[in-house]
Amino acid sequence: MGFFDSEIVQQEAKQLFDDYQSLVNLGGSYGKFDREGKLLYIEQMEAIMDRYKIFMKRFELSEDFTAQMTVEQMKTQLNQFGITPQQMFDQMNQTLARMKSQIDQ
C-alpha cells in the first residue's frame, strides 16, 4: 500500500489542512481578539505547526516513492524562496513568538 493510499494518512492530511485554513481565516480578525483570544489563537497555531512537522517527518521517513517525491517538491518550492523546510518552521515559530511578545502592547 502506498503512503497516500492509507485512509488514516488521507484523513490526517485533510484534517490538518482544514484546521490550518480555519485558523488562517480566523486570523483575519486577530487584531480584534482580546488578550485571551490572541493567546488561544497562537497556541492553536503552534499545535498545528507541531502536527505539520510530525506529518512531514512521516513523509521523510517513508520509503514510498510518492511520499519522497512530495518531500522533494516541497524542498524545491521552498528553495525558490531561498529557504529550507527547517527555516520555514523556524520562521513560523519566530513569528508566533513575536506575536506572543506583542500581546500586551
Structure description:
With about 100 residues, the protein is mostly helical. It has one domain (about 5-100). Helices cover about 75% and strands about 0% of the residues. It contains 4 helices and no strands. The protein is globular and about 50 Å long. The model has no long low-confidence stretch (mean pLDDT about 90).
- Output the structural class: mainly alpha
Q: SSE string, helix = H, strand = E?
A: HHHH
Strand content: under 5%
Distance between the termini: 52 Å
Largest sheet properties: none
| Number of domain modules | 1
Number of strands: 0
Mean pLDDT over the residues: 92
The share of residues in helices is over 70%
The radius of gyration is 16 Å
**Large-scale geometry:** globular
Structure keywords:
mainly alpha; 105 residues; globular
Tell me briefly what this model is:
This protein has 4 helices and no strands. It is globular.
